[in-house]
Structures are given as structure tokens and as C-alpha cells.
Amino acid sequence: MSAFFSPFISKPDTVSQIMFKVLLALIPGIAMYVWYFGPAILVSITLASITALATEALMLKLRNRPIAPFLKDNSALLTGWLLALSIPPLAPWWLVVVGTAFAISISKHLYGGLGNNPFNPAMIGYAVLIISFPVHMTHWITPHGLGQIELGLYDQLEYIFLGVLPPSVTLDAITMATPLDTLKTHLHLDEHINEILNLPIYGRLAGQGSEMVAWGFLLGGLYLLASRIISWHIPVAYLGSLFITAGIFHLVDPAHYVTPVFHLFSGAAMLGAFFILTDPVSSPTTNRGRLIFAALAGLITYLIRAFGGFPDGMAFATLLVNIGVPLMDAYTQPKVFGKKARPADKTGGQP
Amino acid sequence: MRTLYKFHGGVHPPTHKAESTHTSIVRAALPSKLVIPLHQHVGNRAKPLVQVGDHVLKGQKIGLPEGRQSSAVHASTSGTITAIDLQLVAHPSGLPDLCITLVPDGKDEWITHQGVDPSQTPHSELRHQLRKAGVVGLGGAVFPSDLKADARHHKITTLVINGAECEPYITCDDMLMRERAADILRGAELMRELLGAKEVLIGIEDNKPEALAAMRQAALDDKHEHMEVIAVPTLYPGGGAKQLIRVLTGIEVAAGVRSTEMGVQCFNVATVYSAWRAIAYGEPLISRIVTVAGNVERAQNYEVLIGTPVNELVALSGSKPDTDRHIMGGPMMGVDLPAATVGVIKATNCIIESSPALFPPSPPTLPCIRCARCAEVCPADLQPQELYWFAKAKDFGKTQEYHLFDCIECGACSYVCPSHIPLVQYYLFAKGEIRVRRQEKQSADKARERHEFRELRIEREKQEKAEKLAAKEKAALDAKKHAAISAQLQAENSAAGTGDSHILEPVQSEAGLTKE
């Protein structure tokens, strides 16, 4: 007989379900993405999913680990989706494949697989791609309604897999820089913020279309909070820190520093706050540690966006704060029962 | 309105309490034999007072407490002692222990017994009565109650009576409170007297409205002052003594600290009930209420004689055929009994019949993903994921740095772990290893001390020997010198005709000194 010990009951939650709910929470953002930028994102998500599962299986086999239970945990799938959402959908097929394969094999399995990676695998994949293939990483699709031409699914597929555009269509006609990138370029030209924000690429809060994708991720993030998959500490501290830092600069010099709300709804801020920084494996486990971790990430994101060489700083901010996680955990251990001098917190009267 | 306090974490497992509370407590039928372990309590094993073949009466003392921390054991019914030997007992170790086997004669004949009036009896005598009656903590700790009902070392202001009963399935305290509230409160009042406590706070989880009502009514009927029956939120492990004390008083009793040092003492409802029976009626602790639940036809609470074999007890409830194990306690902290034949002991609050369908094996364990859900539910504010990591790596120093010994083993962490890691087992393993190492270190230290002392002794003896030898040689040399000198003197004397041998005295006494 196998060992039989208490507790004999357990909550029905599994790693697989948690990861599945996170995937589910990405759907509103993805739906917005499809609405504003066409179905190409679905192609890259599919490519990333297949690559992630294949690489995961291969690595498990090479490491002599059981394949089925780990393939079912949905964690590789999540890494693939997050990476696909971070790179331009019209990028050539091999870009997604290389990035995902690198993320799963090098940054996850070489460190010991699920639960052991110090860095967020998707962000490692992103960093590798943006450093190795910077040009391919800038061809973002022009949002719905802004370009003269919009490609259908067939044309998008043909471009992704074969690099062939329909006759008389140039790449420039269907792609453009991201709102953050555009902002940076125009600020370098010494233009006033208000003029820049009048460009058609900008919408109500931030980028046309991309701000709606951010709303989608925010919605999914609220679902994760409500279903207690994530705690509030990381998203609130990250968005709060980004907001406050951006707010200070904006207040001091509104002509050169864009509003804090613009920052929250641009780039990967929402995706990062709810889906990337909250990766449990590569983030602190204590609540105070999470606050420090995410606040620091918000600050770094802003500094990279405002003063760095890259248009968005989310990925590098994540990787930089990932380094500090063991230290943050070690120095933020909460006081244990009976050893704290806390004033008694009350449940509020007798029921 | 009393302010209640929170403890960190906690979980809400399905309670499964309704199944066993439909019917009132039933007196379990007299079993074919009773297997009564002599070691059912914290402290020293009781010494058998009877021999094989002896006829004993119900309530007759058959085990004598040995040492201060020990408790008496009694015959649960009248009958004949058929064996005093090692048998499997209701303990997770699965190791046999000394038990007295008693075959009932069916008469259930009491030994003469009578109670005392607590108000007319000195406290020391009341404590002695509790010890003689074998009253121990029935909430699970089985600590001798007479030792706990003693306020000579610390001033006690608050007595907490634990009727929380937070573990799923278990309803023995619930039913006891519903049916025997008056005696529980009298027992609580007795303990308050013994401790000199100002107030008695009776904590009952709010999922037991009938028990709450019965206890409140009894408190009114008997006009118990200083006593308050309080509904506490249902939250596992809110029935842990430290958690309940926290909820009711706001006081956190740290690991390694006794609640009495902070002016609080805590007893379980069944313990104070038994204490009252012992004092007021002279009845020793020979039976208790046991919930039989799980894979049975009729879940039910029984008044069970201590020593009743578990298989005879569960048969009363119609244990279903696919039952493969018997759990003593609840599903969160209970233990898998080593055999169905073990006797019910004073710590047995519940028997859950288990089947693969009721408690299916947990899915395969995955690596820890550091989600920290365990830390969210830990009532001791620990970081279970860190403890797991260090215990797994056998880094026992780190486990202690992260307060391993503050863990109360409630199982909330294992319960919520999405990777299904048996966390508590890792902590038990680490605790065991650390205890073994401490003992090893202690005995190694002792051995080293002994060895060092031996070396020292040998060295000293060697030195003494050498000194003795040196002294001897010196003495011999001196003697020679002496002889030579006296010869010379004699020669001189004989030449000069005078004698003065005493000038040599100091030399001799010098030699004598070194010899000492």
C-alpha cells in the first residue's frame, strides 16, 4: 500500500487549471487585438503554441522526465502565448518559433524546468529576439482604419510564411512603429507633446487600437484578481509606480513628458502588470517582496521608455527585477505568529 | 458585543458535519473485548496494577500514573483481565505498546465511587481527584488535566473553553454540547475556580447554531457568571488552541511559550465535561464521545468505552465493504490507523472509514511553482514554500531559521497546494531529523566529555606516577646520600667522639612533601 497520510483531502485546484485560467484571461485582450489588427496574431499564437509544446516535450524527453503530466500543466503554452503577444504579428514565422524554442529550452529547462527558472521565459525569448532581430521586431501592423490597405487572413499568412506581399503593397503601407516608438522619434525631433498626440496613430488615452488591447488585458487581469489566481500587490504596485513616476515627470515638464495614463495604456504595461510580472515562479512570494519587485519594475519601465534606447521597457524591467527576487524574498520574511508586536486587527464584532 | 480577532490564513474545507448530527448520541454496545493501552496520555506510561486472570470492576484503576506527568488508566467495564502485553495501538508510528486486554462479563458492574462537593474541597484535593480519575485533554493533546488546572506558577485571567471543533466530519463536541451543556459549563466553572480565572470564554464555530443555543441556554439556566458563549467564524484551523485564544482574546501565543505565561488557559469542552463527571460523580474517564463517519451506512456519534476495538465500533454504523482504511481524527490532521483492531483511546474523537472513492489518491506531484498559496493560508504566518525548499534540500539550519518549529502541522498548506506537494510530510521529516541530530549531538557531547575526562585522568595518573617515581628515586638517592653522610659523620663522630644526626631531618621532610 502506498503512503497514506493527512490531509486526506485537497482543494481541487491544479497547476494546470491555474495556467488554463491565465490563458483564458488573455482572451479579451486577444479579441481586441484581432478586432484592431486583424487575425495575424492568431497565427503567431498558434505557431508559438505548437513550438512551445514541441520544445517542452523534446526537453522533457532529453531530461528523462515524464512528458504527459508536464505537457498538461499548460505552463509552456502560457509562455508561448505571452511571447506571441509581445512581438509583431506580421513577423516572419521563424521569429516566433526561434523565440519560443529559446524561451522553453534555454531559459526554462536548462534551469530545471517548471518552477525553477529565475527569469520569465517569455521575456527572455523577447529579449533574445529584440537584440538579435531588431528590424523584424519593429514591423507592427497599422491599426484598423488607419492604413490605406488592410490585409486579409490569406495575405497575412502568405507574408508570415513566405514573406510575399500582394502586388503593389509595400511593407510600409501596412506596418508602422508603435505609439511609444513614434512618441520617442517625434520627441527627438523636438516636437511638443500636444502636436505629437494629435497624430492619427493616437487614440483617446494612448495608441489607437493598442489602448483597446490594453483595456482587454486589464479586464482579463481583473478576472485573475477576482478568481484569486493573482494577488493585487504586483499589478497595483507596478501600475502605481509607473503612474507616479510618469506623473512626476509630466507635472515638471508636460511639454516633453507624456501623461501617466498614456503610459499605463501603452506598450506592454497592462500585459506585464497582470500576466508577466505575476508569473509566480520568477516573482517574490512575500507580499512586501511583491510590492518592492513590482514598484521597481514600474520605475525601470519608465526610465527605459523615457531615457533608454528601446521604445518599451517592460521586458527588460521584468528581467532586471527577476534578478533581485531571492534577495527580496529573504529580506521581506513576515513575522511569524506570536512574534509580532502588531495591534490586534479585528473582524468587527461578534457575528 | 465582544470584539473578535483574526488569525492569518485558514481554509474552508467542506465540513461534512451534517451527516453525523441527525441523531443523538448512542451508547455503543458492549464489545467482545477491550484493548486498553497504558499509555494514552502525554507523559510516562501508567504502571499496570492488575494481573492476568484478575476480575475487575467498572471504573477500577488498572494503571497507576508513574511520575508527575502521567495519568491513571481504568477498567471501562467489569470483567476479566486476559492479557497484559504489547499490542498495536492507535498511534501513527504503528509500533506496539503495552495494553491490558479486558473481556467484559456483561454485568457492567461499577466499583463504589462517589463525588465530592467542589466548593467544600481544597484545590489540591480536587487536582488529585482529576489525576486519580485519569482526566486528560480530550481535544487531541491528551495532556494530564490536573497539571493544567494549576495556577500556582502563573496568574490566569482568562479561561478559554474550546468548542470550535473546526475539523471536517468530527461532531463529537458538537453533540456533547447539544446534549450535555449543563455539565460542560459546571466543569468549566470548576476549572475557573481551580485557576482563579476572572472570565470564561467559550468559543464555538458559527456552523453549530444548535450547540451555541444549548450552551447559551445552559449558561442562563445555571446563572453562570463570568461566562460567555461566543460564536467564532468557521475557519480551519480555528479550533487550534493558539488560534482560538487569538480569536477570543487577541493574544498570540508564540511557539515555545505556554499560554499560561500570558494569563490564558485553554480546555476542550469534552475535557471539562469529563472533569466534572470525575469530581461531582467520582467517575473516572472510561468513555468518551466518538464520531463514526465517512464510508458508513449511518454516520453517528457514540459514547464509547475506552479500549473498544475500532472494528467493533464501526460495525455499529455499518462500515461499507469497500472501506480500506480507518482514519482516527479528521481528514486534515487525522492518522491512518495501523490496524482495525486497535482500541479506542482517550484521544479518539472520530473514526472516519476511508475508501478510495471517498479519499482518492492525490494526483501526481508537480514541482513547486512558488504561487505562495500555502503562505496565504498558513495560520502560523510561515512561508511553507521556503520551508519545503529547505527541508527538501536537507538544509535543516535554514528550516529552523524559517521557524520550522512554529508549524502546527494543520495541513492547510498541503490542502491548497496546486502542485499537490505533501508539504506537512516534509516538515515532519525535517523536524524528526533535527530532533535525532539534537539527540545525537547531545550524546556525542556527553561521549566527548567522557572521553576528554578519561584522557585527562590518564594524563594525570601518568603524571602522578612519574612524580611518585621521581620522588622515590629522589628518596632513594637521599637515603644513599644520608647513608653516605651518616657513614661519614659516624666516621667523623667516631673520630671526634660527638653525634649530631638531626641536621639531616629537613631533607627527609622535603622528600615527604613531594610524596603527598
Structure in words:
The complex is a heterodimer of chains A (351) and B (516). Chain A contains 18 helices and 2 strands. Chain A is mainly alpha-helical. In chain A, helix 13 runs antiparallel to helix 15 (269-276). The radius of gyration of chain A is 22 Å and the shape is globular. The N and C termini of chain A lie far apart (46 Å). With 516 residues, chain B is an alpha/beta fold. Chain B has a domain at 132-283: Rossmann fold. In chain B, the strands form 4 sheets. A 6-stranded mixed sheet of chain B has the order 1-14-13-17-15-16, with helices on both faces. Chain B has a 4-stranded antiparallel sheet with strand order 2-8-7-4, with no helix packed on it. Chain B is globular and about 125 Å long. The N and C termini of chain B lie far apart (83 Å). In chain B, 49% of the residues are buried. The model of chain B is unreliable at 498-516 (pLDDT under 50).
